């Protein structure tokens, strides 16, 4: 079978039509997917589907239904973990992703998971009143269209991986490399 449009855009055509998470092979079109699932697919893959684009059952299962379950560690948006944090994770929903992306200027994808330490950083730096959080959830319909516009994708290829900032060790290594380069002159 031919690869689906999502597989082509993500450069993962070898994963199209796998029967690992689904028993059947085939395609879904944009009309076969609900608007909320379409929004999740677009945010999680970083691609937009036109009218004639297709998605195979495997990619639909991975990016729409099982995405949250497949996230096994904290997405580490603040680059604070030395090793993977895998316990007590909390998933980010669409409203939280939109709010956090706007607040921190970083991309948060619905379905990513945060550990308690990252949640503490978020809750400590963002003073969100309970009524403000409730109002944000009630206003989710108006934010749906805004969500795609507010989240800008730096790498439209693979969006399931987070590109962290340069670590302290990497910065030190680059500084010593530059210092030794400058002393050689």
From TrEMBL:
Source species: Pandion haliaetus
Q: Give the lineage.
A: Eukaryota, Metazoa, Chordata, Craniata, Vertebrata
Q: Where is the composition biased (Polar residues)?
A: 176-185
List the residue ranges of the region (Disordered): 156-185
Which PANTHER family does the UniProt entry name for this protein? Answer: ARL14 EFFECTOR PROTEIN
Record-given protein name: AL14E protein
């Amino acid at each position: 079978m031919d690869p689906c449009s999502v597989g082509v855009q993500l450069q993962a055509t070898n994963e199209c039509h796998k029967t690992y998470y689904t028993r059947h092979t085939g395609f879904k079109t944009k009309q076969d997917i609900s608007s909320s699932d379409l929004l999740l697919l677009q945010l999680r893959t970083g691609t937009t589907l036109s009218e004639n684009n297709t998605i195979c059952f495997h990619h639909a299962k991975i990016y729409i239904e099982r995405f949250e379950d497949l996230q096994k560690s904290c997405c580490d948006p603040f680059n604070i973990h030395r090793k993977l944090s895998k316990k007590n994770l909390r998933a980010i929903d669409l409203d939280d992703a939109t709010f956090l992306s706007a607040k921190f200027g970083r991309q948060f994808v619905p379905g990513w998971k945060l550990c308690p330490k990252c949640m503490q950083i978020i809750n400590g730096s963002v003073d969100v009143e309970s009524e403000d959080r409730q109002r944000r959830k009630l206003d989710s319909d108006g934010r749906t269209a805004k969500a795609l516009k507010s989240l800008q994708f730096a790498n439209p290829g693979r969006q399931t991986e987070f590109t962290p900032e340069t670590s302290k060790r990497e910065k030190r290594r680059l500084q010593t490399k530059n210092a030794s380069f400058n002393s050689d002159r």
